[in-house]
Amino acid sequence: MKPSIFITRKLPDTVIEPLNSEFEVEMWDKEDVPVPRDMLLEKANGASALITMLSDKVDTELMEQAPSLKVVANLAVGYDNIDLEAANQKEVVICNTPDVLTDTTADLTFALLMTSARRIVEADRYIKEGQWKSWSPLLLAGADIHHKTIGIVGMGSIGEAVARRAKGFDMNILYHNRSRKPEAEEKLGAVYVKLDELLAQSDFVVVLAPLTEETEGLFQKEQFKAMKKSAFFINAARGAIVNEEALIEALNTGEIAGAGLDVFVNEPIDSNHPLLSLDNVVALPHIASSSTETRLAMMNLCVQNIIAVLKGDKPKTQVK
Ligand code: GLV
Ligand code: GLV
């Protein structure tokens, strides 16, 4: 019997083609609806490998029902949806998709920063709603980006890629990270600072840290109070790093100037959520790595990782 693989979302046939000759491949048949939990558990039972989305919880309950499971390839660089300890105990290899998405994610993060600062979404809405009556001296005047200070919280490879973009805009680069990054300091002139100093000095606070016990709820009322009133808060990491109530209050009371958000505590966020009613919020549906090229590269990497593990080889990108 061929080992079986379950894929929790519909992926293009060309992506799964390399699996077909040696494995039994089954795929949830919807692109934009997650597989129901009970079906995921049922399919995991008997599967040797899973390709999962960041919206699927891969926990003890799942692994206990999946005695033949050898590898889970998560279609994301983040893996906070996966219980690594449980995976270790069950000797299930966990893979993610770093590197292939770094520049694409950095592009979107910088675009979100620029969109927020220069009020691009508001301006688009303004013209399409027929509000444009004349050129006016301060019409939709935003904030400058060049020569301002960016503060990057989480200086992994995506953080560094954002810093490279910031350098091209002659920005001052501050960063905060668990460990120092001497190479980024030397090459990009990035300056390591404590978080409170980063918050006090930055015109743009950009969060790119993974969601961990240390970063969960890192941004509370106090952190937004510590920021400049003219500052923008950009989050392309995970929603749960931020207390959204505190963010809403900071945006409403003018503690900060605006926010660009690609991620939310609950995804998909309810369209009636108060964050979405604010003009100084630009909201995106978790699309930072979503260029066609990069999403296909991420899918192909998941497929290669699964083939490697099931053949007894070392996968390209195993989570430590
Ligand atoms: C997306 O958020 C990812 O972790 O790849
Ligand atoms: C976050 O995902 C990072 O690589 O900085």
UniProtKB/TrEMBL annotation:
- Membrane-spanning residues: none
CDD domains given in the database record: GDH
* Segments forming domain D-isomer specific 2-hydroxyacid dehydrogenase catalytic: 5-319
Q: Which Gene3D superfamilies match?
A: NAD(P)-binding Rossmann-like Domain
Superkingdom as given in the UniProt entry: Bacteria
Pfam families in UniProt = 2-Hacid_dh, 2-Hacid_dh_C
**EC class:** oxidoreductase
Q: Which InterPro entries match?
A: D-isomer_2-hydroxyacid_DH (IPR050223), D-isomer_2_OHA_DH_cat_dom (IPR006139), D-isomer_DH_CS (IPR029753), D-isomer_DH_CS1 (IPR029752), D-isomer_DH_NAD-bd (IPR006140), NAD(P)-bd_dom_sf (IPR036291)
The entry's keywords? Oxidoreductase
> Per the database record, which ranges form the D-isomer specific 2-hydroxyacid dehydrogenase NAD-binding domain?
110-288
Family membership: Belongs to the D-isomer specific 2-hydroxyacid dehydrogenase family.
Cite the PANTHER family for this sequence.
Answer: 2-HYDROXYACID DEHYDROGENASE-RELATED, GLYOXYLATE_HYDROXYPYRUVATE REDUCTASE B
Please state what the protein is called: D-glycerate dehydrogenase
